[in-house]
Write a structure and sequence with these properties.
single chain; 219 residues; alpha/beta; BirA Bifunctional Protein, domain 2; 8-stranded mixed beta sheet; 3-stranded mixed beta sheet; 5 helices; 27% helix
Length: 219
């Protein structure tokens, strides 16, 4: 069984978490640290991946300033997404070679860890072929979790964002992940009651340990 260290960063600005990821990525490549799992929430921010269309950000800088949201162009795959309070964000920094795991398997397991976490709340989700992320398809298809990663020298960074009690109105200002005909949702919206992010984070870590056959060595 492999091991990882977990860091609970709390509510943190995106730029600070991004800098930390890059620092830990380099240390992991060098073998100076164990695998990592960063768990956090972000201040409001829109991030654009390598393949993002800038036109999918539907508002101007003045509007963004007024709603207190930052914008970052980053190196993960995918288009545009939103991060904010009430959203569980996870950044696994894993050495895939050490885990004898390919990139496709890694993404599959990351998706499965989210699917199983949501099942503990009675929310049935699935993948949709050709689209990233985790979806509810009963009724109108709607996305509850986004995934975007980067792999450098077989070490991962970036990760997932799971809407727990997120203010979904922020998604009105973008074309989420470049998809125009599907909506977004959250655990709290689906259950009709507010769910604490800390509660979902604790459940997610359990599923992460099980799905990745790994255990934490510090908290």
């Amino acid at each position: 069984m492999t091991e990882f260290e977990i860091q609970h960063l709390g509510l943190i600005r995106y730029g600070n978490a991004w800098d930390l990821q890059k620092e830990l990525l380099q240390k992991r490549i060098e073998g100076a640290i164990a695998d990592q799992l960063l768990i956090c929430e972000h201040e409001p921010v829109y991030t654009l991946g390598k393949s993002a269309d800038a036109n999918n950000l539907l508002v101007n800088p003045v509007f963004l300033k007024n709603i207190g949201a930052e914008v970052f162009q980053i190196e993960r795959g995918g288009d545009i997404t939103f991060h904010g309070p009430g959203q569980l964000v996870g950044y696994p920094i894993l050495n895939l070679n050490d885990r004898k795991m390919g990139i496709r398997t890694y993404v599959d397991l990351l998706e499965e860890s989210l699917i199983q976490t949501l099942l503990t709340y009675g929310i049935k989700t699935q993948r949709i072929e050709g689209l990233t992320g985790i979806w509810l398809i009963e009724g109108a298809p709607r996305k509850i979790a986004a995934i975007g990663i980067k792999v450098s020298r077989w070490v991962t960074m970036h990760g997932f964002a799971l809407n727990v009690s997120t203010d979904l109105s922020y998604f009105n200002h973008i074309v989420p992940c470049g998809i125009t005909d599907k909506g977004v949702t959250s655990i709290s919206k689906e259950l009709g009651r507010k769910i604490p992010v800390s509660e979902v984070a604790a459940e997610y870590v359990k599923q992460f340990e099980k799905i990745f056959n790994t255990e934490k060595i510090s908290v």
